[in-house]
Amino acid sequence: MIPSAFIPSPSHNGFYIGPLFVHAYGLAYVFAVAAAIFVTRWRWRKVGGDPDIAYEAAAWGFPAGLIGGRIYFLITTPSQIEPHNFWGIFAIWNGGLGIWGGILGGVLGGLYIVRKRLTRGDVLRFMDATAPALLVAQSIGRIGNYFNQELFGKPSTLPWALKISPAHRPTGYTQFATFQPSFLYEIIWNLLLAGFLIWLGNRRKIKPPGLMALYVAGYAGYRIFEETIRIDYSVHILGMRLNFWIATLVCLAGLAWFVWIQKRGKYEPLPPDGPSADAHVVRRRKPSGPYRKPPAPTYGKKSASGGKPASGARPTLRSGGSRRSPDP
Question: What predicted TM-score, i.e. pTM, was given to this entire model?
Answer without folding.
Answer: 0.77
